[in-house]
Amino acid sequence: MTNHYIDIKNADVILIMGSNAAEMHPISFKWVLRAREERGAKIIHVDPRFTRTSALADHYIALRSGTDIAFLGGMIKYILENKKYFEEYVRDYTNASFIVDEKFSFNDGLFSGYDPAARKYDKSTWAIKVDEKGIPQKDPTFENPRCVLQMLKAHYSRYDIDKVSSITGTPVEDLKTVYELYASTGVKDKAGTELYALGWTQHTVGVQNIRAMSIIQGLLGNMGIAGGGINALRGEPNVQGSTDHAILSHILPGYLKAPVASLTTLEEYLKKNTPKTSEPQSANWYQNTPKYMVSLLKAWYGDKAVKENDFGYANVPKLDDGQDATVLNMIDKMYEGKIKGFTCIGQDPAVSLPNANKVRQAFTKLDWMVHVNIFDNETASFWKGPGLDPKKVKTEVFLLPAAASMEKEGSMSNSGRMLQWKYTAEKPPGDALSVGDILYRLVNKLKDLYKKEKGAFPDPIVNLVWNYGDAKGHYDALATSKAVNGLFLEDVTIGDKTFKKGQCVPGFGNLQADGKTSCGNWIYSGAFAADGTNLMARRKKDDPTGLGLYPEWGWAWPVNRRILYNRASVDKNGQPFDPSRPLLKWVDGKWVGDVPDGPWPPLSDKEKGKLPFIMKPDGVASLFGPGLADGPFPEHYEPLEGPLAKNPMSSQLNNPAIKIFTKECDLYSGCDPKFPFVCTTYSCTEHWCTGAETRWQSWLTEAQPEAYVEISRELAELRGIKNGERVRVESPRGKVECVAMVTTRFRPFQVGGQTIHQVGMTFNYGWLFPKDCGDTANLLTPTAGDANTMTPEYKAFMVNVTKV
Question: Residue 237 — pLDDT band, cuts 50, 70, 90?
Answer without folding.
Answer: low
